[in-house]
Amino acid sequence: MMSDLIDEFRKEHESIMENLVAVKRLGVHTMEGRNHLMAAKGLLLEHLEKEDLHLYPELDRAASTDTDLKEMLDSLESELRDITRFSSYFFEKYTLGGSMIEFLRDFEKLKNTLERRITKEEELLYTKYSQLHLSS
Predict the structure, then answer these.
(1) What are phi and psi of 39, to 5 degrees?
(2) Which residues contact 12 (CB under 8 A, 6 or more apart)?
(3) Which residue among 31, 81, 93, 108 sits deepest, i.e. has the most Cβ atoms within 10 Å of its Cβ?
(4) pLDDT in tens, 39-55
(5) H/E segment holding residue 91
(6) What is the pTM of this model?
(7) Contact, 32 vs 26, CB < 8 A?
(8) Residue 16 gets which letter from DSSP?
(9) Do residues 9 and 130 touch, judged by C-beta distance below 8 A?
(10) pLDDT of residue 1 exceeding 60
């Protein structure tokens, strides 16, 4: 079951990024592009909520006795606040279209930021979560 949850999180990461790439390919000025934009937003919000319900509570409990994990979670939490702030700005700004030049600049920033975060989650948090389940 635990590996199913991690697999589900990874698939959600892929789907979020695929939708964002589709927006870039189709253009934020097209209806189809904006539909992918809204799909990416919805998937991202659902994913974050699911992590908050199923991943972080368990990691937070383990962090009460693991200072390295506590430091990692604190750092990632601060980073997530910045990502949330920028992604909210991005989705709000481009929901109705917008300048392609500005979109491309903001898109690259969002894409790169999300890719870095996804890599950290998959390499650090999901690994730690899996270890917790193997030791229980």
Answers:
(1) -65, -45
(2) 43, 46, 47, 50
(3) 93
(4) 999 999 999 999 999 99
(5) helix 67-94
(6) 0.87
(7) yes
(8) H
(9) no
(10) no
The position carrying tokens 């700004």 is 93
**Pairwise pLDDT comparison (12 vs 78), residue with the higher score:** 12
Single out the residue of 135, 119, 133, 14 nearest to residue 76, CA to CA: 119
**19 neighbors 87 (Cβ within 8 angstroms):** no
Torsion, Cα 12 112 103 48, to 10 degrees, reads: 30
Q: Distance (Å, rounded) from C-alpha 29 to C-alpha 9?
A: 30
Q: How far apart are the first and last CA of the chain?
A: 13
User: Which residue carries 């927006």 as its tokens?
Assistant: 23
- CA distance to 25, 62, 71, 98, per residue, from 125 (Å): 31, 12, 12, 36
